[in-house]
Amino acid sequence: MAKVKTKFTCLECGYESVKWLGRCTECGAYNSFVEEKDIDPSKSKNLSKKLLDTDIQKPKKLDEITITKEDTIKTGMGEIDRVLGNGIVKGSLILLGGEPGIGKSTLLLQLSELVAKKDTDVLYVSGEESLSQIKLRADRLGVKNDRIKILPETNIEAIVENIKQTKPGFLIIDSIQTIYTDEITSVPGSVGQVREITNILMNISKNMGISTVIIGHVTKEGSIAGPKVLEHMVDTVLYFEGERMNTNRVIRTVKNRFGSTNEIGVFEMTGKGLVEVTEPSKVLLEEKKEDGGGSVVTCMLEGTRPMLVEVQALASKTNLAIPRRTGIGVDYNRLSLLCAIMEKHLGINLSTYDIYVNIVGGIKVNDTAIDLAIVSAILSSIKDSPVPKDTVIIGEVGLLGEVRQVLNYDARIKEAAKMGFKNIITSSYSKASDKKVDLNVSSIYNVKEIKKLI
Ligand code: TYD
Ligand code: MG
Fold first, then answer.
1. Tens digits of residue pLDDT in 73-116
2. Quick check: helix, strand or coil at residue 70?
3. Through-space distance between the first and last CA atoms of the chain, rounded to whole angstroms
């Protein structure tokens, strides 16, 4: 008999070690190791097969494989269809991660109805809420459809039995951290459980052609197995982002076997659930003040969607030996880097200022095309001179102070023109191929030239 061994797994990256480590040697996370009992490997291998009683697969020639049109379910909610590639691919496994309370269950209940309307049976498995709680939410959202079935269950063996009986086309598991299998002794939510359950669900969805969405909670402390350990097992990974105090919500594609990554969908949390925001630029710029130093509009582009956002900066005199740098919605390291570039190339002594940068609307930006806007906003705050409100600033800033061109410039200026902007400050290397866009362009090669413009 194989000996049951103990191993330690990093919750952040899934790295395994024979002994406990305070800091993961792989990803550098602190205090992220949990102890797990290894299950008998022969048992584990056969577990999902046993549950499914499926025949062994035979290889097929590429020519023999046919793809039919109905292979995706279009939900009709544009924002969701886009982040998924082009609707929900049949038999695909999707992971939706996000902090608790961000709106994952809400979104999937709404999605259930949209999918059910496309003549697909839906099975919503909830390990977190009771039938009446889900019913209450459904009533609140106005979700009503005979094709949706709710199953409050946490045991995967029982869930699989139900799946075999109901044969749904769309399956929701809410959430992976609450489901367990009898075959493993560790508690629900531990890496071993979460991995094994996902493995079973992956086999089911592939074999039975069920599109499955797995909800995974991400906590800041990482006390339960983060969805990070599952990312490689699923087809699509979506992350739900947003500040709880703010009603804006963003779904970001981190991985997608059926479409491009970094695609984002924008939603607003309302009293009647999530509503898609089809014109985010309009919503995000709604409250922009007419004047005042430190506010700059830029155009970010995540995936294929250009979006105008307001970058705000506040530079205030500091008494601290090490001045504060705080970025909300922007990467801290990027902000530090831009401050260093400003010191070197604009010749401004920033060590006497605390600097705060915020992207309005609770949006997180990874796009480096907003660099020049951040620099401009900080400069504008220091000089206390407002940037004209009909100006958009786009450009990546390099370490040598050079202003670089950005990806998909055309899409960005089109969006700016559509929203009524008249002037643009950008890199001299940016060339618009679409001559129809009517914007007054001021172009610069180096970040120092920005001083003359604002
Ligand atoms: P929920 O979907 O339960 O979050 P998660 O599954 O990610 O943990 O959403 C919970 C929050 O959403 C809760 O704070 C209340 C809010 N909410 C609304 O604002 N409007 C609604 O129509 C619903 C159903 C929830
Ligand atoms: Mg929930």
1. 899 898 999 999 889 999 999 999 988 889 999 999 999 999 99
2. helix
3. 75
Instruction: Check: CB of residue 426 under 8 Å from CB of residue 397.
Output: no
- Nearest to residue 307, comparing CAs of 245, 269, 360, 255? 360
Residue 357 CA from chain centroid, whole number = 21
Ligand 1 pocket residue status of 140, Cβ below 6 Å: yes
Query: Which of 450, 432, 435, 283 has the alpha carbon at shortest distance from 373?
Result: 450
* Ligand 2 center–CA 204 separation, angstroms: 23
Highest mean predicted confidence (pLDDT) among 4-18, 98-112, 181-195: 98-112
By the 8 A CB rule, do 96 and 319 touch? no
CB-ligand 1 contact for 216 (6 Å cutoff): no
The Cβ-side half-sphere exposure at 36, using a 13 Å CA radius, reads 28
Beta bridge partners of 323: none
The alpha carbon of 102 and the centre of ligand 1 are apart by a number of angstroms equal to 6
Tokens 């061109």 appear where?
405
Annotate 273-309 with b (16+ C-beta within 10 A) or e (fewer): bbeebeebbebbbeeeeeeebbbbbbbbbbbebbbbb
Question: Does residue 344 have a pLDDT over 70?
Answer: yes
Q: How far apart are CA 294 and CA 141, in angstroms?
A: 40
Cα–Cα distance, 3 to 38 (Å, whole number): 9
In angstroms, the Cα distances linking 286 to 154, 300, 366 are: 44, 17, 22
* 144 CB within 6 A, ligand 1: no
